[in-house]
Amino acid sequence: MSLLNSILSAFVGDKKKKDLKLLQPIVAQVHSFNKQMEEMSLDELRDKTYQFKQKIKQAIQDQEEKIEVLKKEVETR
């Protein structure tokens, strides 16, 4: 089986390497925020957390409303 895998990787490429290459820019971006986070006080971090929670809440509000409508529709049947 390893011979077959070797032949396939030679023609198709290594999936792990492709995935790592795809994810590396994201990892670098996350690491770039590290210094900013270290410089923040605990209160500033708490405020950022609150801001992120509010953004997430706003982003999923439409989906939450659709879920509620569908739940009500199912209950009436």
Q: Give average pLDDT, whole number.
A: 89
Helix content percent band: over 70%
The helix/strand class is mainly alpha
| Element string (H = helix, E = strand) | HHHH
Counted by DSSP, the helix tally is 4
CA-atom Rg in angstroms: 23 Å
Total E-strand runs: 0
Largest sheet: none
Low-confidence segments, given as residue ranges, are none
Descriptive report:
This protein is mainly α and about 80 residues long. It contains 4 helices and no strands. It has helices spanning about 1-10, 15-40, 40-60, 60-75.
Please summarize what this structure is:
By secondary structure, this protein is mainly α. The protein has helices at 2-12, 15-39, 42-59, 61-76.
Short key terms for the protein model shown above:
single chain, 77 residues, mainly alpha
What is the topological layout?
Layout: H1 2-12, H2 15-39, H3 42-59, H4 61-76
